Amino acid sequence: MSKKILVVDDEKLIVKGLKFGLMQEEGWEVDCAYDGGEAMELARANEYDMILLDVMLPVYDGLEVCRMIREFSNVPIIMLTAKNSDMDKIMGLENGADDYVTKPFNILEIKARMKAIMRRSTRGEAPKQENTNKVIAGSLVLDRESRTVTIDGADINLTAKEFDLLELLLLNPGKVYSREKLLNIVWGYEYPGDVRTVDVHVRRLREKIEKVPSDPKYVQTKWGVGYYFKGQQ
């Protein structure tokens, strides 16, 4: 099935290269934007399967665009950054990005990351639980078919990666996953980034599903090891 992609970068040669690689080689539909304002207009007017978003943009920078998109959409977002500092990468994740790639990049790496994220966004890869699409833990209900989460009947707005993390942990209560293992399973490939990517996503997830994020009841930390889900009665 053809995918619809939005590429946002003020460097026209980069946009041209990405468009060629995604359209000619993958057969995907590609829209292009060259500043944050144009990106927002397209993001609000269209349903995209993925957004490739540069950090340094005119009008609105990429972090602001990402933050605004997250107010109305869970579309997977990969940030493109010319900056190689850990803080810049973490800021992208904190603002709702699913992944990041540092320039200069290889188009093959971009496509591998896109396909991994889209695969996880369309079908869960964790083991099924008694052939049901709904998994319940106390007042938390995760629907694997609609990829939605509710707590006490209220919708919880999760990004693709946040949903994937919660799904994996929820389907395997009590099993501790190291950060490296979570990167490999949830990101779907040998992720070249550092494990703080997981910490940022877990922190964002806790802020959305926990009443007291600093004292979590669902997603627990096994100090020095990793994370696990503690079921609620």
Quick gist of this model?
The chain folds into 2 domains: 4-122, Response regulator (Rossmann fold, 3-Layer(aba) Sandwich), CATH 3.40.50.2300; 134-229, Winged helix-like DNA-binding domain superfamily/Winged helix DNA-binding domain (Arc Repressor Mutant, subunit A, Orthogonal Bundle). It is built from 8 helices and 12 strands. The chain is an alpha/beta fold.
Distance between the termini: 41 Å
Query: What is the mean predicted local confidence, pLDDT?
Result: 86
Annotation field: number of helices: 8
CATH H-level superfamily title of the largest domain:
Response regulator
What CATH calls the topology of the largest domain is: Rossmann fold
Domain count: the total is 2
Arrangement of strands in the largest sheet? 2-1-3-4-5
- Any low-confidence stretches, pLDDT <50, length ≥5? 123-131
What is the β-strand count? 12
Regarding CATH, which class of the largest domain?
A: Alpha Beta
Radius of gyration: 18 Å
CATH level-two architecture of the largest domain: 3-Layer(aba) Sandwich
The structure class reads: alpha/beta
